[in-house]
Amino acid sequence: SPHKRDTQEFLCVSFFLYICLVCIIVGYTIVQTFELMNTNLDKAYFISFCIEQYKNEKGISGSEAMALLSEYGVLEYLSEHWEILHTQSRQWIIEDIDEFIRTRKGE
Q1: pLDDT tens by residue, 12-24
Q2: Alpha-carbon distance 101 to 57, whole Å?
Q3: Do residues 99 and 68 lie in contact, with contact meaning Cβ atoms separated by under 8 Å?
């Protein structure tokens, strides 16, 4: 009957639109997930770079650098502010870390 056909077409179109909406939502979530993964990877590379540069500048071992930077919360600072900090020069970052540690020590 014509009414049954209209109902079936409506259900097919509705289902199709529902599937499209789900795909858009899932696709957006996948894109967000990849962006987050890239951001976290960028942060990890930046923090690793900072640790390496700091230890080389100070002539200390990697474990000594990690202990010092961890003790004063530098790693968290670098992670929280990496978007700004990663645009700065190597020397500026080292000086900023030194200043951050001095401030934490109360000097």
Answers
A1: 677 766 666 666 6
A2: 15
A3: no
Residue 2 and residue 8: Cα distance in Å, rounded?
A: 10
pLDDT digits (tens, 9 = 90+) for 75-103: 999 999 988 898 899 999 999 999 999 99
Give Cα 75 to chain centroid, integer Å: 14
Please tell me the predicted confidence (pLDDT) of residue 39: 75
Token duo for residue 84: 């700004």
Spatial neighbors of 53 by CB under 8 A, at least 6 apart, are 90, 93, 94
Specify the residue for token string 């900072």.
50
| Overall pTM surpassing 0.70 (yes/no) | no
Question: How many Cα neighbours within 13 Å face the side chain of 18?
Answer: 6
